[in-house]
TrEMBL record:
Binding site for ATP: K558
Organism: Candidatus Doudnabacteria bacterium RIFCSPHIGHO2_01_FULL_46_14
UniProt name for this protein: Valine--tRNA ligase
A Pfam entry, by short name: Val_tRNA-synt_C
Recorded family membership: Belongs to the class-I aminoacyl-tRNA synthetase family. ValS type 1 subfamily.
Amino acid sequence: MSKAYNPQEFEDKIYEKWEKSGFFNPDNLEKAGDRFWNAEPFSIAMPPPNVTAELHLGSALFITLQDIMTRHARMRGRKALWLPGTDHAAIATQNVVERKILEEEKKTRTDLGREQLLRRIEEFVSHTQGRIQNQIRKMGSSCDWTREKFTLSPELSLAVRTAFKKMHDAGLIYRGERMVNWCPRCGSTLADDEVSFKQAKGHMFYLRYPVKDSEDYLVVATNRPETMLGDTGVAVNPGDSRYKKYVGKIIMLPLLNREVPVIADDHIDKAFGTGAMKVTPGHDHNDFEIAKRHGLEMIHLYTADGKIDAQEAADHGFDDYAGLTKEDALNRIVQELHEKEFIEKTEEIEHRVGTCYRCGTVVEPVVSKQWFVNVNAEFKIENKEFSKNLRLPEKTTLKEMMTAAVKSGAIKIVPKHFEKIYFEWMKNLRDWTISRQIWYGHRIPVWYCPDCTETIVAVEPPASCTKCQGANLKQDEDTLDTWFSSGLWTFSTLGWPQETSDLKTYHPTVVLETAYDILFFWVARMVLMTGFLLNDIPFKTVYLHGLVRDIEGKKMSKSSGNRIDPLDIQAKYGTDALRLSLVLGNTPGNDMKFSEIKVEAGRNFVNKLWNISRFILSTPPLKVRGGGGGLSTLADHWILDRLDETVAAVNRHFENSQYGQAAEELQRFTWDDLADWYLEIAKIEGNKKEVLDVLLVNILKLWHPFIPFVTEHIWSQMAKSLLMVDDYPHVPEKIEKFAARPLFEAMRELVTGLRNLRAEYRLGSTPIYSSYLEIPKDLEWIKDHTPVIEKLTRTKLNFAVMDHAHKMPYFLWEGVRIYLVIPNFDSKKEAALTEKQLKEAESYVKKISTQVKNKGFLKKAPKEIVEKMQADLSAAETKVKTLKAKVKQLK
Ligand SMILES: [Zn+2]
Ligand SMILES: [Zn+2]
C-alpha cells in the first residue's frame, strides 16, 4: 500500500475489476459463494436520467444512495439487481435540440420536417447517453449494465403500445375535446402539473360591445382582448337587474361583422368586472362549460404552431388577422379598438398567469382533441389477491386504486409525511392528458381511416382498415407524454409484456429511490400503470431524498452560477469523498446544503481510514502464540464490544432507511474509538495482530457500501476475493456486554481529564509532568494500567497523597482529586487570570440574557438566531460555573 491516499491511482481500475467479475449481474452471483444459491432477490429500478444533459449533484446523490442500498443487499447475500437506463424525456429533449438548431442554423422544426428533426435528436441522444453512462460508472455504481434500458427502445416501445391498447380496450383511455393548457412556444399541450404559476403585471380592458340595431352597448372586462375573435356570446347573471332587458338581444362584435347572443347563466358573478362577461369557449375553462350549457359555438383561434388559424378566420369573419401570432394579434386588436373607440377604460392589474414549466412562456387555455387517461372510469381487477391486499372491491377506478395502494400500507413512503401530500394530490386528480404535439417520443398507436372515419387502436401498424379494408390509414400525429412510458419503468425494463423470468423474480421492486419533487409526476404514475396492467404494486417502499442546494440553501442551477460539477469534485477529491459528503448528515426527504468543505472533510476521513489500514497491515504477526496475544487487555475487550454495538446500530439504521445515520455511527467508531483510542493503546501494549485484523476486516466490510473504491482497494492488499461479494457483518445474536467495560470507560475519563488539565494550563504535549492520585482501595485496579495511562497523558503517575499547600490544579475523577504538578506554578497569578476570564464571561452572560429575554427582539428575530443565542447563553453559563470553581480551587 502506498503511503499517500491517491484515489486517482486506483478508482478506475477497481471499477474495471468489478465490471469484469460479472457480479453486477445477479445471475452470476452464485459463482461468488453458496450463500447466493436460492438467495432472496432484491431489485431497484434506477430512475432513468433524462438524456438532455450531464449529471449534476442531485444525480450523484441518488446514485450514491441506491448504490449503498444495492451493495448492502448484495453483501447480505441477496441477489441484488440495480437496473440502469435513460429516459428520452420527449419534450425536454426536443426543446434542447430545437433551440440548438435555431441558434446555430436559424432553422425551425417545420423547416426541417419530422424525419430530419428526429434524426438530429437521435444523434444528440447517442452522444449524451454515452456521457451519462460514463458518469454513472465514475460514481462507482454497481448496476447491471447488461440489462440497461432506454425508454424509447423498440422493446420498451412495444410495452408502451401494449399498455395503450389494454387501457383503451378497458375504457380507460379516450379521445375528447377538452380545455387543455397549451404552450404556444413548445407548440404542445401541457398536463396540469406542468404549468407553473407566477404573478405578472397586465391590463384589464373594458370593452364596449354594441347592441344590434341600437345606440346602446354593454361593457365587458377582459385581460385578453385578442380572444374576442373567438367570442360566441355575452353572459350575464339572470338575477342582475342592470342587464335583464338585454337577455336574448344580439351583440355586434367590435371590429368583426359577427353577431352573438346575450345569455343568462347562474354562474356569472354579478360583482366581477361589470357583471357582463364575454364568452370565449375555445380559450377559457369557464366559458367552455357555459358554452356547453347554452349550446354556443366554439372557435379555435390558433394553429398548432401558434398562429391565428386561417380556416377558422374565414369561417367566422376575422380573415384580417389570419396568420398573425398571438402577440401581433393582441397589439393590432388593441390599437384598432382604441382607434374606433371601443375601449371605455383600462386598468393596471396584477394577476396570476400559468407558464410552461419547460420554457416559461405564458400558456394558453385551448380546446383541442386530445387523448386522456380516465381516472374515474370503473374497471375490474382480475387478480383477487391484489384487490384484497389493497382492500378494494373487485370494481374500482384508477384514482381509488392509486389511493388504496398507499393507504393500505402495500406501499410505504419514507419519510411518512409525504403520504399526506400524496393523498392530497389523489383527491385533486383529474383525467391525465397523455397526448403531446411534439415529434420526439412514442407515437400514439392509433390509426384513422379517411375513407370510412374508423379509428383503429393497435399494437402493430394495421395494413388496412378493419372496417372498409381501405389502405389509406393515417397514424395519429401526436406522441405520448414522456411519463406514460416512464410509468411502466419497473416492469417494461424486465421484459413485459412477455412473461419473463426476470419479471417473476424481480418484480415488484423492493425500493424506489427518487427526489421528492417527482412524487406525483413519476411515482404516482408508476402506481397507476402497474396497478392496472399487472395488478401489482411497482415497489414496496418509496424512499424520497431531498434536493442538493448550495451552502446558502439556494437551488443550484446553471443560470445562477452556483452549479457544481460532480466530475470536478471527483477529480480533486476522489469519488469516495464525494459519496461520503453526500450521505453524511443526509436524512430522507430533507434538502441538504452542499459545499466543498464537506467533501474535504470526507476526503480527510477516507485518508484516516487509509492510514489506519496501513498501520494494521504493517503490524507484524504475534510473536508468541498464546503469550500475551489474543484478548488480554481492557482495551481489547472494549473495542470488540464497541464493534458489536456498531454492527448492530448500522444494521438497524439500514432497516430504517437512515443511511446518513449509519455512516455517522461508523465514522464515530472508526475515528473516535478505533483510531483515537484503541490504536494508540495498541501501540503501547503491542502484540495485537489478531484483534487488529478482526477490526480491519470488519470496518472495510461495514464501510464498503458507502465508500466502495478505497475499501475494495485496501481489501485487495489482503485477499484475492472481491469485497463487494463478501458478507456484511452480522448482528451478533446477543451482544454480551463485557463486564469490565465500565473500567475501560473510567480509565478513558482519567486520561481525558489529565489531557484536559494539560490543555487548560497550556502545557503543550512534550514535557512529562507528575500527577498525584489519592486512590481508595476500590480504585486500585487502575494501577494495572499505569504504563498506558502514563504514555497517553505524558504524565508520571504517583499513587500518593499530594501536599495540599502547593495549591496545584486538580480535577475530580470518580470522586477523587487528581493533581497535576506543574513546576514553578504560581497559583495567585493563575487565579487572577482566571478571575479576569470569569468577569468577561459574566458580562457576556448578562448581555445575552437581557437580549434573549427582550420580547421585542424575540418577536422580530428569526428562529435560528434565537436558538443559537439560547445555546450560546447556556454554554456561557456553564463556563462561568467552571471558572468560579477554578478560582475557588486556586485560592
Ligand atoms: Zn413551452
Ligand atoms: Zn375504413
